[in-house]
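[job 4471] stage=fold_predict status=RUNNING
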Amino acid sequence: MPAHVIADPETRLDALSELSQRLLASARRRGASQAEVSCSEETGLNVNVRMGEVETVEATRDRGIAVTVYFGQRKGSASTADLRDDSLEATVEQACAIARYTEDDPAAGLADPELMASAQAAADWRAYDGWHPWMLEADRAVDLALACEQAGREFDGRIENSDGASVGTGGSLGVYANSHGFVGREGGTQHSVSCALIAGRGEAMQREGWYSIALAAEDLESAASIGRRAAERAVARLAPRPVATGEYPVLYAAEAARALIGHLLGAISGGALYRRASFLLDAAGTQLFPDWFAIEEKPFLPRGLHSSAFDAEGVATREAPIVLGGVLQRYLLGSYSARKLGLASTGNAGGVHNVQVAANAGGLDELMRGMGRGVLVTDLMGQGVNTITGDYSRGASGFWVENGQIQYPVDGITVAGNLKQMYAAIEAVGDDVETRSQVRTGSILIGRMTVAGDSGGDEA
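[job 4471] inference complete, writing structure tokens
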């Protein structure tokens, strides 16, 4: 069995569970009124090649222990990777010392005990089909990476250089336990193949890539197809032309569209809300999107990239809408942010669990035909989002579309608007769902945005 594969996950989880109980008991002996422990182990293998040569072969094995204690509403945390008894005891003592010297925080403390996931759900870590070790030896990983890059370099004579290809595989196990008596187990694998290629030469060079990521190796795209897709995307970007500054429909390809949803999720997260650093303060229950638009959180999705029965505090996750009928249904809260806002945890400590945007249209080609004329955005650069006002301005590249067909590549443009107005102006969501992220969305068409390009361009 390859060294990066965890041979007996059940035994390792048993050991992590036992360790968590020892640390909780140590915290109680030191007078902590509440405590929580996270224990994790990770292994991996990653190889990188470039221009037909092996650059790196890296095997990893990491572990971590984090202890948080509460003395009333005073909190202290400490962590270690050293599993020796004296080091573990010192970690608990350090957390307790920190807590004794901090001030009371009325929002501090474990999540409410009645919100914990059931013992059965917390223990059934294989429930969502996320454990699929890849018996991949280093030599075979190198062969896959080389084949991926070679397929891309041979695809078109205009591919002149490469940023390389990579193959990675790994597994992780974790236990979260707290003094409510909750013990939750998690385990998952993740595998990837990627390639980045350079077309053209000199100032005309264009770099593009492609990658595949999955929990099971059989769900990955083939290495050769990834290389060819990277090459196809790089060649398609050659000889970009300018676009005149103006207002146009903007179609975000699925891989770019997930960033639009990411801005929404950030704005409705508890941390942004209680700090009043969100353009969606007091927006729950209001219409933000067209009345057909919907987003649902799906934490129990088989082979979902972030499926789990409980969040980072042990709170039970639930399948529930975030947006329904265009109306924002709820915020994304852990226990701390919920208390700061006078609300209840939504089971989102640590983030969301597989967000699904409902489609109302076909694939990218259908959306381009519906758009008729405008900009297809395939890549975004920079930050360019004011989280307090929602003002949006990001560098972008992609293609000019005329009569529903791609005409030529464009780059060096900026797409701008205000996120509230952009969300309200969404005309369609495609069914070409991007599955390489926990934000699962198809392409998104926005009826009109400001596109800043070259004032000397031909389009008007």
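[job 4471] summary: The two ends are 62 Å apart (CA to CA).
[job 4471] exit 0
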